[in-house]
Amino acid sequence: MKLYEAIKGRRSIRRFKPDPVPQEVLDRILEMAIWAPSGMNLQNWYFLVVTGERKDALVGLASKSYDYIEPVLKEVFAERPPVVEAAKKFFSRLGGAPVLVFAFYEPTRERPETSVQTVAAAIQNLLLAAHAEGLGTCWMTGPCMWLTRLMNFWVSATRRAWQSSLWGIQMNRPLPRNASRGGWCTKGSKARGVSRELW
Ligand SMILES: Cc1cc2nc3c(=O)[nH]c(=O)nc-3n(C[C@H](O)[C@H](O)[C@H](O)COP(=O)(O)O)c2cc1C
Hints:
- The chain is α+β, with helices and mostly antiparallel strands and 199 residues long.
- 46% of the residues lie in helices and 12% in strands.
- Strands 1-2-4-3 form a four-stranded antiparallel sheet.
- The structure holds flavin mononucleotide (FMN).
């Protein structure tokens, strides 16, 4: 798959088929993630791949986060109540994805923003690689409020001082899109986000 095609073709997927993702596919995708640039080339990212019963337990925790996010969603999508309803449904099962990936960073002497950007670059690589493998993904920070607590437990159990800032990504082949729901907003509008005059 050509890079430009992959960038434009990747979209957030919120309904997944239940079949497992083969280990070798996961390995290829994670390898692409860690080819990303990183501040001072410290590569201080950390990915945790969760499947099976542990994944189910995490999904249960993630769904509790919805109550905290609902007021914000209702405000942002005041004109589009179906988006709020869809988000509620999505949080309850995380789309039925059989794989969750959590991304952390290990704190360095750099500012935290550098590490956040480092991990974000790796995540974008991961999403594009998954897309090239025919898998759907959705980058999520929404459920992390609750998941962070559990992660802290796991992390201390492994005696690693990973920063508890994390992102969750679900992964699997997407179910067909519901065309009537459409996207959340128009993609890639040139009027948004890019300015050539202000350098
Ligand atoms: C940092 C970040 C956090 C996100 N958190 C959530 C989330 O909690 N729940 C969700 O459904 N989507 C989440 N998304 C996905 C965005 O909603 C999505 O990228 C955006 O609507 C554009 O759609 P697209 O990915 O299909 O291009 C997140 C994306 C990013 C980059």
